[in-house]
Amino acid sequence: MSREEEALPINLRCEYEVNPIGLDEPAPRLSWNTRCKRRGWRQTAYQTLVASSPSALASDHGDVWDSGKVTSSESIHIVYGGDPLLSRQRRWWKVRVWDEKDTPSAWSDAAFWEMGLMQEEDWDGSEWIGREAPTTPDGEPAPFLRKEFHLDPNIRLARIYVCGLAYAEVHLNGKKVGGNIERDPGYTDFSKRTLYVTYDVTSMLRAGDNAIGAILGTGWYDVHDEAVWDFHKAPWRGRPRMRLMLAVDYEDDRTEYIISDSSWKVSTGPIRRDGIYSGEIYDARMEMPGWDEPGYDDSHWSPVSLLSAPTGRMTARVCPPVAITHTITPIAISEPKPGIYVVNLGRNISGHLKIRVNAPAGTVVTIRYGEKTSPDGSLDRSNIDTLMLKTDPPQLFQQDTYICKGGGEEVWEQRFSYSGFQYAEVTGLPYKPEASQLEGRFAHTYFESAGEFECSNPLINKIQEATRNAYLSNAQSIPTDCPQREKNGWTGDAHLACEMGLMNYHSASFYTKWLDDFADNMLENGQVGIIVPTGGWGRGDCHPAWDSAYPIVTWFMYLYCGDTRLIERHYGNIRRYVDYLSGRTEDFVTPFESLGDWLPWSTVTPSQLTSTVFLYVDARIVERMAKLLNKTDEAAKYAVLAENTRMAFNAKFFDSERNIYANGSQTAQSLAVECNMPPESHRDAVFARLTENLESLGHIDTGILGAKSVPWALSENGRTDLAYRIISRTEQPGWGWWIQQGATTLWEDWKGENSLNHIMFGDVSNWFFQWLAGIGLDPEVPAFAHIRIRPNPVGDLTWAKAVYDSMHGRIVSDWRKEGGFFHLNISIPANCSATVKIPASCSSLVTENGNPLDRAECVSLRRREEKWAIVEIQSGDYSFEVRD
Ligand code: BGC
Question: 521, 631, 493: which is closest to 568 by C-alpha?
Answer without folding.
Answer: 631
